[in-house]
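User: Let's play a game. I give you a shape written as tokens, and you guess the letters that built it. Ready? Here's round one.
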């Protein structure tokens, strides 16, 4: 019995160790059409989420037609490294190339894959959409429904272009109940442009405030959800404000901000700090019912949830530029108060 317990303990320790390794932002890249004899490159970002550093021992491509390059063989704790795979494109037709990434002290490799098609003349698509997802391009991957009233059904539009010759049927994966997607047209021919219409049903929410989720664009059959096909969606549901008499408005709280938006200069520091002074110019206490941030790279604090008439307090915030970049959400702060004139305020933070 004692030997069995020891064996089980060793197996569990081995399994826990086997799981821990740098995590790729994606393990599969579809590069689309590639011109004959013009090498193409795919990149993979490996992030070390452990408390100890890792070292890449070697990278073994499946054939000599693939060359690899890495930004750093050592990946510190909390750091990242980028692996670049370049295919020489010397053969016409579909290619599917794998590389094995071995880490020091670990027998099992991490597999990375790139796929595409080498053609004599790639299809030319006149496209100015900024978000590149391989075989499709989008106008945005960050949808924001701001200032949504109770019962409203706003619609956001995402432009989409099929960058390949074959027909493409866009689909969104992991849609929450409060979002509905329509595709116009339902099938895009090669090079054709269409739109994705996202409808928000505010009746699905039981409270006001900030709601965030991610949906994922299916780019080909059996596609998986990942960072490279993520579309971030946020919604700010405003509280309903009942009609007030002139006398009630005169006695209500009034929020005033020293700055409506903030610009911080990124001088290479890990953290940037700022503050905004909030003053109550009204005749009754100002109460903060919601205080939220859109981006995980922003941290903010308020001294209190109540501000007396004629008084001021500081809204202090810290921005981590490196962490801000990891999220598609904009760095913003949401304030919801009982100021009837503007119960919702979104403070935008920009970095330059």
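Assistant: Ready! My guess for every position:
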């Amino acid at each position: 019995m004692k030997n069995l317990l020891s064996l089980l303990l060793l197996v569990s320790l081995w399994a826990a160790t086997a799981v821990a390794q740098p995590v790729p932002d994606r393990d599969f890249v579809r590069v689309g059409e590639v011109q004959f004899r013009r090498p193409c490159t795919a990149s993979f970002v490996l992030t070390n989420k452990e408390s100890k550093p890792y070292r890449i021992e070697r990278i073994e491509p499946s054939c000599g037609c693939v060359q690899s390059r890495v930004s750093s063989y050592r990946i510190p704790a909390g750091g990242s490294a980028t692996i670049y795979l370049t295919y020489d494109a010397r053969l016409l037709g579909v290619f599917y190339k794998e590389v094995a990434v071995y880490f020091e002290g670990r027998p099992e490799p991490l597999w990375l894959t790139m796929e595409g098609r080498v053609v004599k003349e790639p299809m030319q698509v006149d496209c100015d959409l900024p978000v590149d997802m391989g075989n499709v391009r989008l106008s945005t991957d960050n949808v924001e429904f701001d200032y949504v009233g109770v019962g409203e059904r706003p619609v956001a539009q995402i432009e989409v272009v099929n960058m390949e010759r074959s027909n493409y049927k866009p689909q969104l994966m992991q849609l929450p109940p409060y979002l509905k997607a329509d595709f116009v047209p339902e099938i895009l021919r090669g090079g054709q442009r269409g739109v994705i219409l996202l409808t928000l049903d505010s009746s699905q929410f039981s409270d006001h405030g900030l709601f965030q989720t991610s949906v994922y664009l299916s780019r080909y059959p059996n596609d998986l959800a990942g960072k490279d096909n993520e579309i971030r969606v946020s919604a700010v549901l405003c509280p309903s404000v009942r009609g007030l008499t002139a006398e009630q408005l005169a006695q209500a709280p009034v929020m005033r901000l020293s700055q409506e938006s903030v610009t911080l200069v990124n001088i290479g520091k890990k953290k940037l700090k700022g503050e905004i002074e909030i003053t109550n110019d009204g005749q009754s206490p100002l109460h903060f019912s919601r205080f939220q941030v859109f981006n995980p790279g922003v941290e903010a604090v308020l001294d209190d949830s109540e501000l007396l008439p004629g008084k001021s307090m500081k809204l202090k915030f810290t921005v981590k530029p490196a962490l801000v970049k990891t999220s598609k959400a904009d760095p913003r702060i949401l304030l919801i108060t009982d100021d009837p004139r503007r119960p919702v305020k979104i403070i935008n933070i920009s970095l330059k």
